[in-house]
Task: structure prediction
Amino acid sequence: MVISIPKSGYYVAALSNQKEEIILQHSPVVRDAIFEKNVELITSSTGKKRLVEFNVATPGDLIISQKLLLRTMQNIIRKKGVGLLRYYPTNGSEELKNNIIKHAAGYQTRINPQELLITDGALQALHIALSAVCDTGDVVAVESPCIFSILEVIRVLNLKVIEVPVDLMNGFDVDFLKKACLKSKIKAVVITPNFHNPTGILLSDEIKKELVKVIQQHDIAVIENDIYGDLNFSGKRPSTLRSYDESSLVITYASYAKTLAPGIRLGWLSTGRFLKRAEQIKFSMGSTVSPIYQETVNRLLNTNSYDRHIRAFKMQLAKNAYLTINLLSAHFPKGTIVVPPLGGYNIWVKLPDRVDMDHFYNQCDQIGIKFTPGYTFSFSTMFANNFRIVFADKYSSLKIKALELVGEAISY
Ligand SMILES: Cc1ncc(COP(=O)(O)O)c(C=O)c1O
Result:
């Protein structure tokens, strides 16, 4: 119930009156990748002054290390000059890849340099991985809830899905996946084991090991997203599924959109046994990722600027997370369920069934506050009373006031 944030203090981590939510266990069903409701793909904030935005998973300008990034880019331009205007190696700069491999070794994740591709962000890495593993109409298992951008890639690739519940205590339900494997030919599992978006849940090492065993038994590829892995609020940097896999069935990807800035379009993809096809698909998407971003990230990893930045950055995120939980606890209706995140950017909230969600979103519009509606996180209608809060920006009195007002507007 209490968590310590180094150099910051102790915070109430969970809502005292919160009873555990029983997730209804539905049996595994294969669905077409069709959103029940029209989903507006929002990835950038409107920047409207009076609008309080908790709906975009991007670091706010006040929290991004602007000076560090812009100064590093200026140094790179001065140093590298015309070299930045040429094509770079198709799979990415060797020096950068070695630094990514060195960084991953710090959390027991072995990456083979031959299998590593530099990409134009995490979503592109996912697109390449799914295209390398699956053919049209194949079935993939995804987390439920799952971020809409990932669901959108699956929809665009004309794949079918089995939604695997994310239990609010333990995360991805491996037993449910086992049942699904007996019913359907699953070609891949798409998962964010560390600080899942939107629940913020961290999969335990035991469950990670169990999941790797299941996929090896059924010869299923796992495509793991580790975009939030460096953002643990306390304790050690979590491992990845790749840390437990010798079969090269685990494909791991990430980017610097959440740890540095989304404008730094740079990600990586460790392809496992799917290198050949992944390379061809990557090449067909454009052979070079922007040299300036490759050199900038390489410089930050090469010096300890990246690690130093991450230490301060995640402390700020942790403070924001616990301030958000306390504001929800103080101002939202009794029976509101909140999953306290252990890292990352996101908090998953469920309002009591008695709350009329149309009325809630009307109040949000009037007050000028935006959350990400639950229905965008699934191809089913399961999360109508849920919404996601992104806490990756500094709090202002305007933001605190808006959260208080909307909570009280539905507390009857
Ligand atoms: C879980 C997850 N994966 C991928 C992305 C997109 O990452 P990128 O901007 O590097 O493509 C997001 C952005 O919201 C995300 O939350």
The chain has eleven helices and 17 strands. The mean pLDDT is 92. Residues 87-303 form a domain with the Aspartate Aminotransferase; domain 2 fold (CATH 3.40.640.10).
